[in-house]
């Protein structure tokens, strides 16, 4: 018997300030709020597009995302083309978000795919990438995938 087909449903993230994170993810990813609870002790937001749940935010943490501990490495979102990555980069710069690399970079040496790398307000590492169109940009990390070491 073969295993059933799988696909990622949604990703849940712990945040320190629900309002701040909801605004960030809405501005950067053009997510809609599909559901939320913004008062009381149990605060959360369900974010997505066209009725499809993509990210849940849970206000139940303090401090910053600990990149040195086991767990999530980064969260990547694929967009259709390099123009969409450029629009995202522009939005990030308008918001004053510090980029990990100087602009859009390829996933590795000789790769056509690539994107922009940054963190959310709580330090969660994020990527917006396109499957092609980044051929001419220099590689920031030689000998290893760009998305693996930021």
Q: Could you give the order of the helices and strands?
A: EHEEEEHEEE
What's the total count of β strands? Answer: 8
Radius of gyration from CA coordinates: 16 Å
Helix content: 10-25%
Task: Determine the CATH topology of the largest domain.
Answer: 2,3-Dihydroxybiphenyl 1,2-Dioxygenase, domain 1
CATH C-level class of the largest domain: Alpha Beta
Reading side by side through the largest sheet, how are the strands ordered?
A: 1-4-3-2
How confident is the prediction overall: mean pLDDT? 95
- Architecture of the largest domain, according to CATH? Roll
Number of helices: 2
Q: Give the amount of beta strand, in percent.
A: 25-35%
Give the structural class: alpha/beta
The CATH superfamily of the largest domain appears as 2,3-Dihydroxybiphenyl 1,2-Dioxygenase, domain 1
What's the main sheet like? 4 strands, mixed
Distance between the termini: 40 Å
Kindly report the oligomeric state of this protein.
Answer: single chain
Unreliable residue runs: none
Into how many domains do the coordinates divide?
A: 2
Shape: globular
What secondary-structure arrangement, pairings included, does this model have?
Elements: E1 11-15, H1 18-29, E2 32-37, E3 44-49, E4 52-59, E5 75-78, H2 82-94, E6 105-106, E7 114-119, E8 125-130
Parallel strand pairs: 1-4, 5-8
Antiparallel strand pairs: 2-3, 3-4, 6-7, 7-8
């Amino acid at each position: 018997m073969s295993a059933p087909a799988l696909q990622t449903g949604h990703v849940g993230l712990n945040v320190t300030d629900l309002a701040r994170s909801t605004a960030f993810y809405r501005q950067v990813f053009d997510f809609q709020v599909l559901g939320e609870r913004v008062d009381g002790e149990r605060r959360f937001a369900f974010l997505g597009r066209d009725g499809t749940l993509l990210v849940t935010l849970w206000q139940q943490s303090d401090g910053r995302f600990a990149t040195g501990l086991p767990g999530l490495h980064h969260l990547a979102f694929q967009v259709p083309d390099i123009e969409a990555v450029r629009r995202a980069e522009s939005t990030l710069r308008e918001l004053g978000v510090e980029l990990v690399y100087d602009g859009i970079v390829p996933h590795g040496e000789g790769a056509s795919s690539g994107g922009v790398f940054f963190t959310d307000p709580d330090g969660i590492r994020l990527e917006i990438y396109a499957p092609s169109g980044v051929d001419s940009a220099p590689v920031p990390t030689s000998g290893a995938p760009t998305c693996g070491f930021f």
